[in-house]
Amino acid sequence: MAPGRPFRSLVFDGGVVTYILDAIAKLDQAQLVGYIASVTIFTTFCMTTMIPLRFVALLSNLTFATYGYLSGSHAVMVLHLVLLPVNFWKLRNILDLVRSSRRNTGERFQFERLRPFMTEVRLAAGTVVFHKGDMALEMYYVKSGEILIEDVGATCRTGDLLGEVALFSSDKRRTAGAVCVTDCVLLALSEAKTKELYFQDPEFSFRVVEIIIERLLSNARQEAVGSVLRDASVPVSVATASNDVSPQVAALP
Q1: Which of 182, 180, 177 lies closest to 151 in space, CA to CA?
Q2: Is 181:153 a contact under the CB 8 Å cutoff?
């Protein structure tokens, strides 16, 4: 580059833009559509929200099918004609979910509305759902039955969520085990789908945060009560021996 010559001047005066425009002009119709299709498929890999991604995926299917037709690549054309309704169906599902959420604003979120995204799991009484320390791969909605949370003593019943805290923890480990007290029907939502819905559906994300906070506060209260009782057990025994304690304190277990 000549001293003091701006880069922009080199690009335009040096013929770089002219070369690119000439190259584009020499493309036939099939090649041009093929490059456009490649740009759309690349764009989908850079997107993080589902609704725009599905729209771009539909555009990608259309352009690739057109490219396959123009270039005589029938396998490419058939593949994307098959993928087109699949992407359309997935887009419709997520749009229905968002519309349903907006219609039900102000009501408590109904997790059974997520049924199309969940997998039904049937477990017999006594079956371990997960062990303490297991990696969290999904959370569960209890459709029916009763589940005991070991080490905590809490019980999950019909309509409750199970295993949601670990999905949002840093180590993704279960903090307690869970076992079926009765025959149970659970609806499992994978970690990937949970986080996708968390970013896509504000009502869902708000309700999940609500549940996690309620669960953590409940656990903190139980630990606080347990700590008070443990601390009280020593003075109660000592004071009782010296007969220097009020009846209320002496009555603590």
Answers
A1: 177
A2: no
Q: Are strands 138-144 and 184-190 parallel, antiparallel or unpaired?
A: antiparallel
Using a 10 angstrom Cβ sphere, with 0-12 exposed, 13-18 middle and 19 or more buried, the burial of residue 231 is exposed
d(CA 28, CA 24): 9
Residue identified by tokens 């039904």 is 120
Q: Exposed (0-12), middle (13-18) or buried (19+): which is 18, by Cβ within 10 Å?
A: exposed
Domains of the chain by start residue, with CATH = 7-103 (no CATH), 111-215 (2.60.120.10)
pTM of the predicted model over 0.85: no
User: Residue 248 pLDDT more than 60?
Assistant: no
Q: Is-contact 118 189, C-beta < 8 A?
A: yes
Under 8 Å CB-to-CB from 163, ≥6 apart: which residues? 129, 130, 136, 138, 139, 140, 174, 178
Is the pLDDT at 45 greater than 70, yes or no?
yes
pLDDT exceeds cutoff 80 at 20: no
Q: How far apart are CA 47 and CA 57, in angstroms?
A: 11
Predicted local distance difference test score (pLDDT) of residue 226:
62
Which pLDDT score is estimated for 247? 35
